[in-house]
Amino acid sequence: MKDVQVRCILRHHRDGGPISRLYATGEISEHTDQALWARMADLTLDGRDADADQIRDVIDYVNQVGARPAVSGWTSRR
Question: What is the sign, positive or negative, of the torsion defined by CA atoms of 32, 35, 41, 47?
Answer without folding.
Answer: negative
